[in-house]
Write a structure and sequence with these properties.
With 178 residues, the protein is mainly α. Helix 4 packs antiparallel against helix 6.
């Protein structure tokens, strides 16, 4: 079971990292080119804002899956922290299973949304690019996040301790002070 979970985890991690890195690099290049064009030559790129919006959608939904993998997603732990270890594990199993089910259901529904956009042949205003291709990242990102929660549920079901994801055990997640 652990080898199957590892293979799933590593496969989705490669996709997540690739999409996030490429999207952020494209946003940087696009914004830089647009600024140079606007201030250096007096002409903005007509598609710049639209392209960045599409890239932000990709970073948001795929980045969510990556945050879940690294145990860096937002968690409300007030009640969780007061429980004994066995109670924490049971609550974490409930949370990961229900969140996985919800995200996979939302991914399923998002597929129909994308198909609806495709059926009406909606094009982006500036680029005249089919919007459904860009929005196809939404069900993919939701499904990958749902898969990460499912993997966390299976890790908690089959292993000692409380797991936030395949690679992060409770108490090992990095705290971010704000």
């Amino acid at each position: 079971m652990k080898t199957l979970l590892l293979a799933l985890s590593k496969g989705t991690e490669l996709i997540e990292k690739t999409v996030i890195i490429l999207a952020i690099l494209l946003m940087m290049l696009n914004s830089t080119a647009n600024a140079i064009g606007r201030y250096g030559f007096g002409k903005s790129l007509f598609f710049s804002e639209e392209l960045n919006q599409f890239l932000i959608v990709a970073v948001t939904f795929v980045g969510f899956a990556y945050a879940v993998r690294k145990g860096r997603n937002i968690r409300m732990t007030a009640a969780y922290d007061t429980l004994p270890p066995r109670g924490r594990k049971m609550l974490m199993m409930l949370i990961t299973f229900t969140t996985s089910a919800l995200l996979l259901f939302l991914a399923y529904q998002a597929v129909f949304y994308v198909l609806e956009i495709k059926a009406v042949n909606r094009l982006s205003p500036a680029l005249q690019f089919p919007v459904y291709i860009i929005y196809a990242v939404i069900p993919v990102g939701l499904a990958m996040a749902g898969l990460q929660y499912l993997i966390a549920f299976l890790m908690n079901l089959t292993h000692e301790g409380t797991w936030l994801s395949y690679e992060i055990k409770d108490g090992e997640a990095e705290e971010i002070g704000v």
